[in-house]
Amino acid sequence: MNTDFISEEFIKRWEHFYGKPRTKLITSHLRSPDPRIITPNSLKIRSSDLKRQLEKRGFKLTKIKDLRAFIVETEPFNIVSTPEYLAGFFSIQALSSLFPTKCLEPSQNTIVVDMTASPGIKTCFLAQKMKNNGSILALEISKSRIPALKANISRMGVSNTIILNFDATEFYKLNIQVDHVLLDAPCSGTGLKLSKNKRLKPRILDDIYRQAKRQKLLLESAWQQLKQNGTMIYSICSLEPEEGEIQISNFLERHEEDADLLSLPISSGFSGADTKWNNSSHPQLRETRRFFPKPGVDGFFMALVHKRLH
Asked: What domains are defined for the chain?
C-alpha cells in the first residue's frame, strides 16, 4: 500500500476508525483520478437539450442514476471552452457537491443561508431548486474568494442571491431568521482527492482540532438564526470523526430540547453510527452518512438537522 502522500499517524487513525481493509481502499481511491462530471442548469436549459448540444460537438455523456448530472466519457476539447459552459448552461463539480443541496427542500418563498458560499456551485444549485425565487444569503469571509462567487452566480443566471463578505460564525449578529441552512463547513479536507488536496502530507492533528472548533462556532451561529421547523444540512469533506460524527453527536447533546436528525434522501454511503471512536455515540447518529473516496466522489460526512417546534 503506497501511502507516501500521508503521515503514518493518519493511517493509524483511519485503521482504528474504519479498519485496515477500508483504509487500504481509502488510500487507493485518494490517489485515483476523478471523471469529469457536469450538472445542467435548470434555470437556462433542459438536461436533454444540453446533452444533445454537447454531443453534436463530439462529447459523449452518460446520465448518473438518481442525479441530474452526467459523466463526460469523451471530451474532444476542454468542455469549459464550449459556448454552453460560458453561457452558464452547466457547472462542473464532484458528485459530493450535489449531495448536500439534494438534502434541502427550500420552497420558492423561503430564506436560505449558505454559510460558506464561495465558489458558489452549491449556491447556484439552491437557486435552481427555488426557481430563482425566495432569497439566498451567500456568506463568504474571504474577500479574495468573492470574485469567483460573483462570477459563478452571474454566469448561471442566479438572481435571488445576496452576497455578503461576512464571517459566518457571527451570522447571528445580523439577526436574520432563515428557513434553511447550508453549512458545507471548512474542514481539514482529508477526504479530498490528491488532485485537489496538496496539503495532505504535512497535515497534522492540530489542523483537525482547529477546524472542529470553528465548525462548532458555525453550527451554533446557524442554529441561533434557524427558524423553528427549519432544516440545516451539515457537510464536510473530511474523514475525521472529530469534524463529523463527534461534532454532530456533541451538537445533539447541547440541543437535545429542539434538535433531531432527519433521514437523508440518499441510499449510498454508510451510517455514521458505524464509525469506531472511543466516546459513546448519540443514538441518532444512525441517520448520518459517511462516504469514503471512490471514483467521482470525495470522502465526506453529512447530517440533516431539524429544529423542532416548541
From this structure: 95-307 (3.40.50.150)
